[in-house]
Amino acid sequence: xxxxxxxxxxTCDAIAKLFYPNVEVVLHDTNEEKLVHISNAFSKRxxxxxxxxxxxxxxxxxxxxxxxxxxxxxxxxxxxTVSSIIRDEDNEVIGIMCINFxxxxxxxxxxSLKNFLNIENSEEKPNLLFTQDWKSxxxxxxxNYLKTxxxxxxxxxxxxxxxxxxxxxxxxIFSIRNVISYLCDILNISRATIYKWLKEx
Length: 201
What we know:
Layout: H1 6-18, E1 23-29, E2 34-39, H2 55-59, E3 65-72, E4 78-87, E5 93-102, H3 104-117, H4 128-131, H5 134-148, H6 158-170, H7 179-187, H8 191-200
Antiparallel strand pairs: 1-2, 1-5, 3-4, 4-5
């Protein structure tokens, strides 16, 4: 990890501690293109994971602060996120800090007030680059499938996992790079199993 990012780890921890348990803070090294620190992790991401966004796209941004924009976590929870670009003394991009706020509790309160007061909800359109988060997109499709079929991800049996994989295939998920490794992790199955099921369809 770039030594110049070390001081930002404390900042990540401080923000996460202040807003605990609703905020997760993730620090990326753009040179290594990896996650190098995470505070109050609830998104199942870990140190060493590859960045979800292309560094070239990040460097092309006109502003060093992006957001807030909405993402969907694996468990279906909505996150409100702000990303901050980190630069060195030569103004070169060396990292990015992402602050993920779990807004579900507040959203439930808002909807209750909205129904009571009949307030219309006007939301800002999210930044296009960061909404193209393939994990968030995959999580949304998985959660919609589970809700429709009244199933729980943790309790899926082998047959049900196969049905989910085939459904994801019909949704075009497997055209996304790295998605198979992600599915292997969250479903606790092997790549060979996924390929076998796709071949049997």
